[in-house]
Automatic annotation (TrEMBL):
Family per record: Belongs to the ABC transporter superfamily.
Keywords tagged on the record: ATP-binding, Cell membrane, Membrane, Nucleotide-binding, Transport
This protein's name: Peptide ABC transporter ATP-binding protein
Gene3D superfamilies documented for this protein: P-loop containing nucleotide triphosphate hydrolases (3.40.50.300)
Topology within the bilayer: Peripheral membrane protein
Species in which this protein is naturally found: Streptomyces mangrovisoli
Record carries keyword Protease: no
Molecular-function annotations in GO: ATP binding; ATP hydrolysis activity
One Gene Ontology term from the biological process aspect of the record: peptide transport
Domain ABC transporter: 22-270
Pfam families, per the entry: ABC_tran (PF00005), oligo_HPY (PF08352)
SMART domains xrefs: AAA
Length: 353
């Protein structure tokens, strides 16, 4: 996201110079019960060498957004409007054959569960080598050597031998490393990591995050990192976009969003995080209520049914008027800038410690 100098990570009007530029993206699905508006007017940028963290609860639209970038939705049931430019190339109108060429080559994805991405029937080395053969026209031998090299880079000991193993012979952490090797073998410009460490224990998670940071330095890729865990985002991301009900509700540099968050939903997420220094047994403070149905989203601000601050806005504005995330604002909320600052300093921050 373009946040190096600007306020709160607002996307530049045209996304000029961005590796990935998403503008006013709408994604909806036809279901038996009606139209699900999974992404509803989303704009953001990702720059080379930077990591954008996308945070939000399940159903906030984060994964749908990234599957749309990869062109992985069934066009029979999906309507996509808006613009997705990858290095200047428009993806929403690209043909499947063009998208196929981009996937694994210019843009690659790391999934939460490597077992769903790795086939049990082929060796790890063969699966890592395959995209290299496909996109670079390399021979089997060259691609295999490159796969072994990549396994070494992601920290698999004795990669020459381990490349001949099948996925079930790898531990969970090693499979995740293998998937990172597969994602990076073609040196993609953009890497999308969807909850890549959620299934791993804390020590392995820290190792994988360090590995991703090191590889980003080496390869210079832009990374979109999707998670519900603000602790992971704090460690990984340069910029943050908080999503709720298919929209961005807050964005900024990681420092801005974590040090002085402005949206009640972000306050709720921070407040519901476990803390190392809190009393053992002290209850967490989850956000009241549940994420809204996207079949029939709430009027006005989609967060209003769960928001404990809406009375401070006055009138019924939160229920009737949709707050916008304009380029010069960091959060889509009707509270004034003064109110946001005061509430955060006097009511939220003391609870966070
Ligand atoms: Fe809460 Fe109103 Fe702000 Fe929405 S616009 S987050 S309901 S205060």
């Amino acid at each position: 996201m373009t946040t190096q100098t600007k306020e709160a990570g607002a996307p530049s009007p045209a996304g000029e110079g961005s590796l990935l530029s998403v503008r006013d993206l709408h994604v909806s699905f036809k279901t038996e019960d009606g139209i699900v508006r999974a992404v509803d007017g989303l704009s953001f940028d990702v720059q080379r060498g930077r990591t954008l963290g996308i945070v939000g609860e399940s159903g906030s639209g984060k994964s749908v957004t990234n599957l749309t970038v990869l062109g992985l939705h069934n066009p029979m049931f999906t309507t996509i409007e808006g613009e997705i430019l990858l290095d200047g190339k428009e993806l929403t109108t690209a043909r499947e054959a063009e998208l196929e060429k981009l996937r694994g080559n210019k843009v690659a994805m790391i999934f939460q569960d490597p077992l769903t991405a790795l086939s049990p029937y082929y060796t790890v080395g063969r699966q890592i080598a395959e995209p290299y053969m496909k996109h670079n026209g390399a021979s089997k031998r060259v691609a295999w050597d490159r796969a072994v090299e990549m396994l070494g880079k992601v920290g698999i000991p004795n990669p020459k031998e381990r490349a001949k193993d099948y996925p079930h012979q790898f531990s969970g952490g090693m499979r995740q490393r293998a998937m990172i090797a597969m994602a990076l073998i073609c040196d993609p410009d953009l890497l999308i990591a969807d909850e890549p460490t959620t299934a791993l224990d804390v020590t392995v998670q820290a190792q994988i995050l360090d590995l991703l940071k090191d590889l980003q330095q080496e390869f210079g890729s832009g990374i979109v990192f999707i998670t519900h865990d603000l602790g992971v985002i704090a460690d990984m991301a340069d910029d943050i976009m908080v999503m709720y009900a298919g929209r961005a509700v807050e964005r900024g540099t990681t420092d801005e969003v974590l040090r002085s968050p402005q949206h009640p939903y972000t306050w709720g997420l921070l407040n519901s995080m476990p803390r190392l220094d809190s009393d053992l047994g002290a209850p967490l403070a989850p956000i009241p209520g549940a994420p809204p149905s996207l079949l029939n989203p709430p009027s006005g601000c989609p967060f209003h049914p769960r928001c404990t601050f809406r009375d401070r806005v006055g009138g019924s504005r939160c229920v009737t008027e949709r707050p916008l995330l304009a380029p010069d604002r960091a959060s889509a909320c009707h509270l004034t800038a003064d109110q946001k600052r005061t509430i955060f300093v006097e009511e939220i921050k003391p609870r966070l410690g």
